[in-house]
Please model this.
Amino acid sequence: MEARLDVARVRGLFPALADGYVHVDGPAGSLVPEDVARAVGHALRIPLAERGGVFAASARAEALVSGARSALADLVGGAPAGVVLGPSMTAVTYTMARAIGKTWRPGDEIVVSRLDHDANIRPWVQVAAERGVEVRWAEVDIETGELPAWQYADLLSRRTRLVALTAASSAIGTCPEVAEISHRAHAVGAMVYVDAAHAAPHLYLDRTALGADFLALSASKWGGPHVGAVVADPQLLAHLHPDKLVPSSDKVPDRFEAGSAPHELYAGVSAAVDHLAALSGETPGSRRERLRASMAAVARYEGELFGWLDQALRAMRHVQVIGRPERTTPTLAFRVDGMRPRQVAAELNRQGICVWDGDAYARELFDALGVTESGGAVRIGLLHYNTPDEVGLVIDAVAALRARSAVR
Model:
């Protein structure tokens, strides 16, 4: 029997929903369930110290770090020893880019995509410029919003050292054929760095099946605190040498984590993964097995809601939804005739609806679409706590903008 998502029960886990707003701004960061807030609060109320000591407060910190690594490994099918923690996906990616870039030589090449969040573009481009490495660009089909896998046949060569791409666009929802692109990259000896920050709240992730040598995450996208991570094979990490302080540990993955760790937030990371694993209710098995059941239930529930929203907005003559990807998360971007995106967002806010506007940090994509100078687009992103009633309110509010756009 397929597990189902009981949205009424799920909403009861989120105290922030009591504010009365419709929160459909998920790609910018989700609301936080009570269990996660409680885990962080508890960690702040007990004695904690730096790791490496012989006393209890230090051992507690060690347990929180180990717990977060194990939880993230379960989330994506990795090994705890291959989980690098950091303050954000962007910060961890910069650390990894500098470490990986040390292995590059002039004449090498990397491939980045215009579909990606800038956090999976700019670190690679900047390090490539420092190392004399050529940057090649995978382009987006601006009509469909797809990132065609076939183009990588021409982009890759024996000089390609790294391919960076997203598992799901946080701007327009597109889910590229990551496994196929990874296979092409590995065939020429390149490594693959996948940004799964936006995919993780919506999809059951398997790092090995995706072919991701490095898989980047952001806990704040799925109910966790502001903690980023990269999951990789520990043996691969052992060959990389980031800049670090001399006295700090040179063990993997510790060598990639500079400075004092926010141990209390790591408690929240573990609780957030447990939250995802329990979304479909009480199911048997390991946490990894429960995640499979829960994320399947999430995908079915969100898919039904999003199908209605997407179809309704595309039927409005005053609305232009960007792209039409075949595989997508419950995320879309749109523009309204005669109104700048900021005006649309402000009007929806007056109706109690939270949406995002601008370039969604997908600057390369929005530049290619030619909409950056006019304010980008309005983005809507559903999560597992959104309801049919909320989607209906969003549809009605966007439909009502027709009268406002007609007078401009």
Remarks:
- The two ends are 53 Å apart (CA to CA).
- Residues 48 and 206 are 33 Å apart (CA to CA).
- The chain has a mean pLDDT of 97.
